[in-house]
Amino acid sequence: MKNILICGGAGYIGSHCAMILRGAGYNCIIYDNLSEGNKAAVEEFILVEGGLSDTALLRETIKRHGIDGVMHFAALALVGESILFTPARLTSITEAASAAWSAAA
Ligand SMILES: NC(=O)c1ccc[n+]([C@@H]2O[C@H](COP(=O)([O-])OP(=O)(O)OC[C@H]3O[C@@H](n4cnc5c(N)ncnc54)[C@H](O)[C@@H]3O)[C@@H](O)[C@H]2O)c1
After folding, report:
1. Cα 49–Cα 104–Cα 48 angle in degrees, nearest 5
2. For ligand 1, mutation pick of 30, 32, 57, 58 (most atoms within 8 Å of CB)
């Protein structure tokens, strides 16, 4: 069975993706800092609480669960937040995503 790490997996898109992947025979591990999303939506999955920028935890999670693939849905997706975006905040989430991909490589 393939093990898939879903970053932002407690969110709307990520949690639905996890359910679809499970139905297709994949084992999903959820990685999410729960800044948004819904913990109850993924209670049937292993949930690792952590941020994208925590590369040490990401690496450990990938190793511990024998991850074969990573799907990335962690984002600041609320429409209202988009008008509050500052360049520093945008850089922060972009750098965090970049760190996540480095950990997965
Ligand atoms: N909802 C839609 O209809 C839709 C449509 C097209 C594309 N998208 C895109 O899909 C992605 C996810 O959207 P969504 O609607 O599921 O958003 P969401 O807010 O429901 O989910 C995002 C998840 O990411 C987590 N998260 C945020 N920052 C994090 C960080 N630094 N580290 C770890 N976890 C973090 C949040 O806790 C949340 O659970 C976004 O890029 C969005 O633009 C969404």
Report:
1. 15
2. 32
